[in-house]
Amino acid sequence: MKGKVALHNLGCKVNAYETEAMQQMLEAAGYEIVPFEPGADIYVINTCTVTNIADRKSRQMLHKAKKMNPDAIVVAAGCYVQADTKKAEADASIDIIIGNNKKQELISILENYRSGQQKTTECVDINHTKEYEKLEIDRTEEHTRAYLKVQDGCNQFCTYCMIPYARGRIRSKKTEDVVGEVKRLAASGCQEVVLTGIHLSSYGKERPEEQENLLTLIQAVHEVDGIERIRLGSLEPGIITKEFAKAISSLPKVCPHFHLSLQSGCTATLKRMNRRYTAQEYREKCEILRKYYPAPALTTDVITGFPGETEEEFEESRSFVDSIHFYETHIFPYSKREGTKAAVMPDQLPEQIKKERSRVLIALGQERQREYMEQFLGKKKEVLFEEQQKIQGQTYWTGHTMEYLKVAVISEENLENKRVMVQLQNIIGQDLILAE
């Protein structure tokens, strides 16, 4: 064995995929993977920079790793070190800095460091690279569901967001490479893939001559035997057209579960955010999906207390969110991110107001979630079961429907990775349906 490696992931599903890919590279190279505890020889932290809090958590994990074993090699990878390489270079707890688009070289970077023991920085100018980083997984720790990164980078430059600076411009994995990876995952027993990216809706746009886009990718993945479900990561409203919705609704493996990023239900606020659509246009996209799917699970993100958000604008946003009837709303009080346009905008709101507005939307979201779930009670749905869980002292098998409703049943049989038709009975807690 070349040594014991502990990995820790911070941030989004794209980061989680990259961490899994790095773990599989390390295993293939002869390293032993161990828990993120004292005793490892190497600690690899895949960092996040989406908010100031994410930066702080990244630093805390890097310092924790060095504290757990002062002689260990600490590798800081990903967005935090890409966005502020100088700060990472000044941090004594970090031995190796690996920016985005360099994680594929982890093994050679590690081996070079071990022969020279010099602090190493491997970062490309992410804003001028067109190369898509070759990272792959051939199995997933979850067994049933695999998150698959198919796209990187973002060209949108929303005023509150740091990600284009940390991830660079849009670039995509070739369809044939995605299909190859999906086939290997299917061979390992995986039945569901979630296509993810930093800006998934941009898939293939940087290569118009190849005529690859998100729809052609979904159609190609749909052909893979063994994959029974295709779920989509976060989408921009602009991709939802009648043609797109009609085409995917004819593919039975595509889950009727769509995360359409909103951020605000007020058009004036959306303009300050540089979101490139109006509230009315967003509503039309939801109506298109509901035309082609009888009861799609629509989920979203909303920011409260964005700079300049008046009481009237918040009420407009709240009323809009109320009228769409989302299955889930992820609510975030606006978090000032240094280096973005929004951070220096006038009329920054006090934390107390941001939190109070969040509280209002969270309560509304919980009402709407229950309303969405109730329409399925008494109906039969297919559930892909994942694991056993103890709930209120009783052991259940839990899994998800195509809409991503979480369902629990009592069964003597081992249901892991099995798709079973069950009748949905009643809701317990905030988000769980008991079935039989």
TrEMBL record:
Residues 3-115 form the MTTase N-terminal domain. InterPro entries: Elp3/MiaA/NifB-like_rSAM, Methylthiotransferase, Methylthiotransferase_CS, Methylthiotransferase_N, Methylthiotransferase_N_sf, MiaB-like_bact, rSAM, rSAM_horseshoe. GO terms for molecular function: 4 iron, 4 sulfur cluster binding; metal ion binding; tRNA (N(6)-L-threonylcarbamoyladenosine(37)-C(2))-methylthiotransferase activity. Residues 140-371 form the Radical SAM core domain. Gene3D superfamilies: Methylthiotransferase, N-terminal domain (3.40.50.12160), tm_1862 like domain (3.80.30.20). Its cofactor is [4Fe-4S] cluster. Its EC number is 2.8.4.5. It catalyses: N(6)-L-threonylcarbamoyladenosine(37) in tRNA + (sulfur carrier)-SH + AH2 + 2 S-adenosyl-L-methionine = 2-methylsulfanyl-N(6)-L-threonylcarbamoyladenosine(37) in tRNA + (sulfur carrier)-H + 5'-deoxyadenosine + L-methionine + A + S-adenosyl-L-homocysteine + 2 H(+). SUPFAM superfamilies: Radical SAM enzymes. Pfam families: Radical_SAM, UPF0004. Catalyzes the methylthiolation of N6-threonylcarbamoyladenosine (t(6)A), leading to the formation of 2-methylthio-N6-threonylcarbamoyladenosine (ms(2)t(6)A) at position 37 in tRNAs that read codons beginning with adenine. NCBIfam families: MiaB-like-C (TIGR01579), MiaB/RimO family radical SAM methylthiotransferase (TIGR00089). Belongs to the methylthiotransferase family. MtaB subfamily. This is Threonylcarbamoyladenosine tRNA methylthiotransferase MtaB.
